[in-house]
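not sure who needs this but someone in the group chat was asking about ATP phosphoribosyltransferase from Trifolium subterraneum so here u go. i didnt clean anything up, its just raw.
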Amino acid sequence: MLTIMSQIGFPLYVNKPGRSRSYCCYASSSISAPQVGLNGNTVSSSSRQEIRLGLPSKGRMSSDTLDLLKDCQLSVKQVNPRQYVAQIPQISNLEVWFQRPKDIVRKLLSGDLDLGIVGLDILTEFGQGNDDLIVVHEALEYGDCRLSIAIPQYGIFENVNSLEELAKMPQWTEQKPLRVATGFTYRKSDPCFLLIVQLGPKFMKDNGIKHVAFSTADGALEAAPAMGIADAILDLVSSGTTLKENNLKEIEGGVVLESQAALVASRKSLIGRKGVLETTHEMLERLEAHLRAMGQFTVTANMRGSSAEEVAERVLSQPSLSGLQGPTVSPVFCKRDGKVSADYYAIVICVPKKALYKSIQQLRAIGGSGVLISPLTYIFDEETPRWRQLLSKLGL
C-alpha cells in the first residue's frame, strides 16, 4: 500500500486499514476562476490575504469532518447553511470553503486554496503525484474505504480466497485474460483513467497476474460477474456489505489502495503565503492531541504504601499499568490522632479503552481501591512528529 502510493508521488504513511474517498489536477496553476471573499469582493489567488481551508461540501464525509473539527475546538460557523464560505473563529484570518472533494485538490494546485481535508483516494486520483501537494496528516480516523479486487463466491472462484490463488488459476491467458470491471469511466480524458492505468494493471502485474483486461461496467458494478461480462471487479469498498449481498467477496492481498480522510496543504502556500504555516501548525497540534486521546482513559486509584517509590514499583510490575511515560504517584494526606500522615498514595495512569477492565483488575490485585475512570479529550505531546516531518519536507 505505502509502496504503491509512494510510486505515484505522495509520501504517505498509512499505518493501518483505512477509513474514506479519491481525484486529477489540471496542469496549469495560472488558470483559475475568480474567487469571491467573505465580503463579496473578487479576490485573485495571488493578492488575497486570507488563508483558505477547503472542506467537503456534502455527505457523510462533510458531517464527519465538521464533527472532528468541533471536537478539536475548531467549530465551523456558517451564517447561512446554504453558503459555501464560513469561518473558524478560533483561527483568525481563516476562511472555510465548502467544495466537492475533487475540486479541493484542484484548487489546492491552482492556488485558490491553501489547506484542505479530503480522502487519500481522491488525492491520489486527482493529484497525479504533484509535488506541490503535501500530506500534513494522513490518518484522521474517518472516511475509511479501500480500492479492492472482488470475485464471485461461487463457480470456479468458490475456493479462491487470496490474490495469490487467483494468480495461480490456469484460466488466464493472453487470449483469455482475467476480465476486471470497474465503475470508473475508462477514457483518457477522464481523471479516473490515471488511477486505473497506473494502479490497477501495475498492482496485478506485481502480484503475478500478467494477463488481465480492464473495462467499464454500465449500471451496478456488482452485477457484472453474474451477467458474465467480467470475472472480477475493482471498486471502492467501505463496509463490504454490498459485495456480500451480491455474492461477491474480497480476497486476501486484493486491496490496491487504502484510504481515509487526510489534511493536505499546498507547498507554495506553506512556504510563500503569510500565516499558512502557523495555521497549519495549530490545526495539526489540535488534531493530533484529540486523535491521540480517542479511546484513552485516565485511571485514578488509591493505594496503601510506605513511600511513593514503593507504590510506583508495584504499579510498574504490571506492564499494562505503565501509562504514557509511567504512573504519577502522589501522597494522599489524612489526619489521624491529631497528626497529618500519608498512608495512601494516589496513582494516575492513562489506559486504552480495550485494556481498561484488565488494568482495573491488575490495580486491585496490587492493592488499588477507589478506582475512578475519566475519558480523555486531548493528549498534547512536547512536539508532534508530523510537524517535524512537515518541516523536513519543506526543507525548513
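also The first strand starts at residue 35 and ends at 36. if thats useful
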